[in-house]
Specification:
By secondary structure, the chain is of the alpha/beta class. The chain has 4 helices and 10 strands; from the N terminus they run E-H-E-E-E-E-H-E-H-E-E-E-E-H. The protein has a single domain, classed as 3-Layer(aba) Sandwich (Cytidine Deaminase, domain 2). A 7-stranded mixed beta barrel has the order 1-3-2-6-7-8-9. Strand 4 and strand 5 form a beta hairpin. The two termini are 22 Å apart.
């Protein structure tokens, strides 16, 4: 399995970006999408957008300029929503500042626990995490609880690929992920 791709419409991508990167934003924002997944003949993991869930201030335990943490109630609600609709979850959040898109060390630490947990709760459906900045996107995808994350290659918006930087994958290859 080489990489992951997220497919969504122009309207869904525009709504997501406007939520994650509003004008003059000073804090990180987050959202999730519910997605069907498939594995292509090229062994690519594809997440197909079904529904967007934009997070609000009440969904966070902490919401800062460089850190987000969801409440337990929000995590439970999102997992139940995906479970009931038999979809995967794809996490999106923003990073503020003039930096290239890359999941932070804090993001990586949290995902090493959260991604396997969500996969387990969703009966083996894959999970992905994406960071969005003014300059681009990056992310990782997990096919199973025990497998290391794979690179998110791009988001296919209509017919246009928004390419990922690949920085998160390069960093993740240097780390060991222990499944729960």
């Amino acid at each position: 399995m080489a990489s992951g791709v997220i497919e969504m419409s122009d309207a869904a991508w525009r709504e997501l970006k406007e939520h994650l990167l509003p004008p003059n934003c000073q804090i990180e924002e987050g959202a999730f999408i519910l997605a069907r997944h498939k594995i292509t003949g090229e062994q690519e993991l594809v997440f197909q957008h079904i529904q967007t869930v934009l997070l609000t201030r009440d969904d966070y335990e902490f919401q800062e300029s460089d850190y987000l943490e969801l409440t337990d109630a929000t995590k439970g609600r999102l997992i139940k929503l995906a479970h009931d609709q038999q979809t995967s979850l794809v996490e999106f959040h923003s990073h503020i500042g003039p930096y290239p898109a890359c999941l932070s060390p804090s993001d990586m630490a949290g995902l090493s626990e959260f991604a396997p947990h969500v996969i387990w709760r969703l009966k083996g459906r894959p999970y992905a995490a994406v960071v969005v900045t003014e300059s681009g996107i990056d992310g990782l995808a997990w096919l199973s609880q025990k497998a290391p994350p794979m690179m998110l290659n791009s988001i296919l918006v209509g017919n246009q690929h928004v390419k990922a930087t690949g920085l998160s994958f390069r960093i993740s290859r240097r780390r060991t992920y222990e499944p729960i």
